Amino acid sequence: MVGCFNCLCRRGNSGGSNPQAFHFTPPFNDPFALPHLSDQHNVPPIESTYRTKSGGNPIEETASPTRVDADDMRRIYVHDDDRVLVKIVHFGHPSSVGIEYDESGDWQFQPLWARRAGPRAWIYFNPEQVRAAIVTCGGLCPGLNDVIRQVVFTLETYGVKHILGIQYGFKGFVDKNYPPIKLNRKLVQTINMEGGSFLGVSRGCPPLKDIVDRLEEWNVSMFFVIGGNGSHAGATAIYEQCDKRRMKMVVVGIPKTIDNDIELLDKTFGFDTAVEEAQRAINAAYTEASSAYNGVGIVKLMGRQSGYITMYATIASGQVDIVLIPEVTFTMNGKYGVLEYMKKRIEQNGICVVVVAEGAGQDLLEGVGGTDASGNPILGDFGKWFTGKVKDFFSKAKVPIDAKYIDPTYMIRARACNSGDHIFCSILGQNAVHGAFAGYTNITVGVINTHYCFLPIPIVIRKARMVDPNSVMYHRCVTSTGQPDFNPPIHAPGLVATPGGLKSSLQPHPPPARGSRRSRNK
Ligand SMILES: Nc1ncnc2c1ncn2[C@@H]1O[C@H](COP(=O)(O)OP(=O)(O)O)[C@@H](O)[C@H]1O
Ligand SMILES: O=P(O)(O)OC[C@H]1O[C@](O)(COP(=O)(O)O)[C@@H](O)[C@@H]1O
Ligand SMILES: [Mg+2]
User: What Pfam families does the entry give (predicted)?
Assistant: First the structure.
C-alpha cells in the first residue's frame, strides 16, 4: 500500500494525512453530484492498477511487474475532491455582454463545481473481472474511431481482458446477424486513420428491455455509449433500468455531436475538424463564384437545430456575404429580404457567397413533417429550396447569374479527424474509462473551461445548445459577412424612437470608478 496521500473518502468528510487537503463540501442539491456504484452495492475500493510507467519490457510476452514509487503515484492520480469551476466569469453589472440568468432571474450565481476527471488512486472494479461493452450511435462524426481505440487501450492498461464492441448502435443488441466483436489493442490499433465508426452506427432503438436483458446476459460491468443527445438519453434510460435490476454495471457516455450542441461543454470532438472541412467547401464556392460572371456560391452545412458549424466556418473562411442559421429568422422577399440584398451584392461586386445551415428557414418551407427512427424531426431541404428561389428571383429580375450549389455535409462527417481532435478524442476516451473505474455511473465526460470533467448525463441533455443571436460570437459572424438584419424593423418594448432611429431604453452601466483606491474610498 502506497502512503495515504489520497484518502478513501468520496464525499469529502475525512482529512487523510495531509492537513492542507482541500475537502469539497457540496452545496445542498448539488446539480453536479454523480451517482456511484457504492450507492447501491457493497463494493470495497481497491488500489488502482492504472500505471503510466511500465516496469516491463514491452517486447517480452509477459511484462515484468511494474515498479512504481509513491512519488509517481502522487503525480498520476486525481483526488476525488478536485473540482472544476463551471462559470468562470464574475459579471459586474446586469448589462454585461454574455450575462446569463437563472430560473429566478438572478444573474449572480453561487459558484458551481464539476468533478474533475482523471484516474483515481482507488478503483471499484477488479480489472480481471470486468466485462466492458462499447457502442457508437446516431450519425457519424470525425473522431469516433479515435475514441473507441482509446477506450480499448485504457481498459487494457488497467488490465481488462474482455471488451465487446456492439455493432450498428443499439440495434446490435438484438440483431443476430451482427453479434458483438471482441476488441483488443491489436484490432483497433489503426482505426483512427479512418473516418466513420469501426463498430458501425444507427438511429432507432430496440425495446429498452431487450438491451438491458443482453447487458445482463453478457455480464457487462462497464458500458460505454459514444453518441449525442439521443444516445445519452438512451444511456440514462438504460442506467435506470439496470439500477432497478440492481445490476452491478456503470454507464459512461462520451458526447459525440458534430453540431457541438451539448450544454456546458467548451466543445465536442469532431467539431473543429468539421469546421475546417466546411471552410474548404466555402472557399471552393468562393473560388467558383469569383471566377464566374455574376457568380453566386451557395453552401449547405449540417446543423439540424444549432448553427455552430455554419457560424464558425463562416468566420474561418471570411469570404461569406450572407449566413443563415436556424436560430435567426429572416425574410426572403421584399425590401429587407435576402434576395434583394443578394441583388445589391451582385450589382456592386459581381459575386455573392451564401452559407446556410440545413435547419435554417424551416418556417418558410412547405410540406415538412415527421420524425426519423430516433425521433428527430425530418427537415425540408432548405439548401435546394433556397437555390431554386435564388435562380427564380434573378431570372425574373433579368439579372444573369451563374449559381453553384455545394452540399458537402456527408463528406465533412465522414472525414478522419485533424490532429487537435485526435488528441481531444484520446483524452476523452481515457477519462471515460477512469470514470468507470472510479465507480461513477450515468455520467459523461467533457471539457469545461479547458479542464476535463465527469458530469451527470441528465444535466447535459436538458436541452440542445443553440447559437445565441445576441452573443458576441454571432455578432463577430455578421460583422465578418457585413449582412444586415433580414427582418423588417419592429417597435419592440424596450426600444424607443429617437431622431437618430430606434434606440434601446436599457441604460448602459455607469462609467467605472477610476483613480487611486484611496481617492475612490473617500
Ligand atoms: N429519449 C430517448 N430515449 C432513449 N433512446 C433514445 C432517445 N432518443 C434517442 N434515442 C436513441 O439513441 C440513439 C441515437 O439517437 P440519435 O438522435 O439518432 O443520435 P445522437 O445520439 O447523435 O443524438 C438511437 O438509437 C435512438 O433511438
Ligand atoms: O442524414 P442523417 O444520418 O440523419 O444525419 C443528419 C444529421 O446529423 C447531424 O449532423 C447530427 O445529428 P446527430 O448528432 O443526431 O447524429 C445533424 O445536424 C444532421 O441533421
Ligand atoms: Mg440527435
Answer: PFK (PF00365)
Q: Ligand 1 pocket test: which of 168, 203, 224, 239 has the largest number of ligand atoms within 8 Å of its C-beta? A: 203
Which tens digits make up the pLDDT trace of 189-208?
A: 999 999 999 999 999 989 99
pLDDT of residue 498 exceeding 90: no
Q: What is the pLDDT of residue 510?
A: 75
pLDDT (tens digit per residue) in 382-406: 999 999 999 999 999 999 999 999 9
Question: Is residue 39 among the annotated active site residues?
Answer: no
Distance, in Å, from the CA atom of 471 to the CA atom of 325, rounded to the nearest integer, reads 14
Global pTM value? 0.90
Stated as kind and residue range, the H or E segment containing 303 is none
Each residue's pLDDT tens digit, 447-458: 999 999 999 999
Give me the phi and psi of 354, to 5 degrees please: -120, 135
Residue nearest to atom 16 of ligand 2 (CA): 139
**Residue type for position 219:** N
Neighbouring CB atoms inside 10 A of 129's CB total 12
Say yes or no: CB of residue 169 within 6 Å of ligand 1. yes
Q: How far is 151 from 159, CA to CA, in rounded Å?
A: 12
Q: Look at 117-121, 176-180, 205-209, 308-312 and tell me which has the smallest mean pLDDT.
A: 205-209
Distance separating alpha carbons of residues 306 and 322, to the nearest angstrom: 17
Mutation probe of ligand 1 site: the residue of 135, 144, 210, 231 with most atoms within 8 A of C-beta: 231
pLDDT at 520: 56
The yes-or-no verdict on residue 63 having pLDDT over 90 is no
In angstroms, rounded to a whole number, what is the distance separating the alpha carbons of residues 443 and 232?
9
Contact 311, 271 (CB under 8 A): no
Give the type of residue at 388: G
Question: Which backbone phi and psi does 43 adopt, to 5 degrees?
Answer: -125, 105
* DSSP annotation string for 340-400: HHHHHHHHHHSEEEEEEETTTTGGG-SS---B-TTSPBPPP-HHHHHHHHHHHHHHHTT--
Phi, psi at 466, each rounded to 5°: -130, 160
Element (H, E) at 71: helix 70-76
Burial of 340 (0-12, 13-18, 19+ CB in 10 A): middle
Give the closest residue (by CA) to ligand 2 atom 20.
Answer: 304
Q: Which of 80, 81, 146, 259 is catalytic?
A: 259
SS3 222: strand
Q: Give the C-alpha separation, 303 to 412, whole Å.
A: 12
- Per the structure block, which three cell numbers stand in for 70? 509513491
- Tell me phi and psi for residue 101, to 5 degrees: -115, 145
**Model confidence band, residue 95 (pLDDT cutoffs 50, 70, 90):** confident
Task: Assess contact for 267 and 255: CB atoms under 8 A.
Answer: no
> In this prediction, does ipTM exceed 0.90?
yes
Say which DSSP state 78 is in: P
What cell numbers appear for 142 in the block? 470525425
Q: Which residues pair with 162 in a beta bridge?
A: 131
